Amino acid sequence: MPGTWTKLVSICSSRRTVSFARCRAWADEGSAACSNWADEGSNQCSNWADQGSNQCSNWADEGSSQCSDWYEQNCHWYSPWNCVAGWFCQAWYWVANWVCQAWYWVAKWVCLAWYWIAKWVCLAWQWFFFIFCSNASGGPMFLLTDGTILLNECASGYGTRRWWKLTPDSSGSYVNGLWTRVADSNIGRKYFASAVLADGRLLVCGGEYSDATGSNSQDDTARTEMFDPVANTWTEITPPAGISQIGDSACCLLPDGRFFLGNFNSSATNVFDPATGNWTATANKGDSASEETWVLMPDGTIIVAQCSNSPLSLTART
């Protein structure tokens, strides 16, 4: 039965998912804070309105009594102006009461409006992330020991310093998994020697077309670094002694967990021990390891189809 290819979830889709989740969390947190503020402000506003209304009513009542007494004593048919003044005092009483009531309800609605405005601002922020999202170009991928997949992002045909991690969903599906951004490496590289070590770290050696000089060039750098997925950090490692270039040299992970590295422009080989962090020079190869693939065999030997002197094949044991 022939195999099938299934499209994985895109980085852009994951970015939307992550941004939505963060925005929803922010919205819920902000909504709760806003609601608490609105309730607290509403209570304070209500207390202030009640207090102001009582004070205003007392003032109006007192003014109304004084005005009424004055009105009864001075309002006569032969003095219409005194009557108008009395009516004004009566009107002032009711206006003062309604102003106090209006202030109370305005304060309540302002607090309520603030709550809903915060909700809509958050919703708009979600759509902003949804619209302005672009996918990253794929590059070398590595299956880590915890089951996640590490991807080096490429751009304009070159490797970048950006790395992404694909975590499968709860059922173990990578198709519906989630991409998240991890720490950037110290340099970007297009082709390079690499291996996932037994302790879960990723060792990356050299790099052809790296940006170690500040821009992508065919410099075959020897710069080496280690990614720790638990700490989410990249740490530079001293390259093998006497090796000024590594580029995309051939490599292989040995059964005991050590890392075996060739050289693209010489017959030198070296072994890296993750336990000590040291390089050790090993036996020279018959020719350079440029553009080769090293395959670890069940008996612990390494078989090589030598590119620089084809069709010669070699086996090696470390």
CATH superfamily of the largest domain: Kelch-type beta propeller
CATH fold category name of the largest domain? Neuraminidase
Derived from helix and strand composition plus strand pairing, the structural class reads: alpha+beta
Order of helices and strands: HHEEEEEEEEEEEEEEE
CATH-level-2 architecture of the largest domain: 6 Propeller
**How many structural domains in the coordinates?**
2
Give the biggest beta sheet: 4 strands, antiparallel
What percent of residues adopt helix (DSSP H or I)? 25-40%
Rg:
38 Å
Counting DSSP E segments of at least 2 residues, the number of strands comes to: 15
Low-pLDDT runs:
none
Strand content: 15-25%
Polypeptide structure, described:
It contains 2 helices and 15 strands. The mean pLDDT is 80. The strands form 4 sheets. The chain has a 4-stranded antiparallel beta sheet with strand order 1-2-3-4, covered by helices on one side. A 4-stranded antiparallel beta sheet has the order 5-6-7-8, with no helix packed on it. A 4-stranded antiparallel beta sheet has the order 9-10-11-12, with no helix packed on it. The protein is rod-shaped. It folds into 2 domains: 121 residues, no CATH class; 132 residues, Kelch-type beta propeller (Neuraminidase). Helix content is 36%, strand content 25%. The two termini are 39 Å apart. It is an alpha+beta fold.
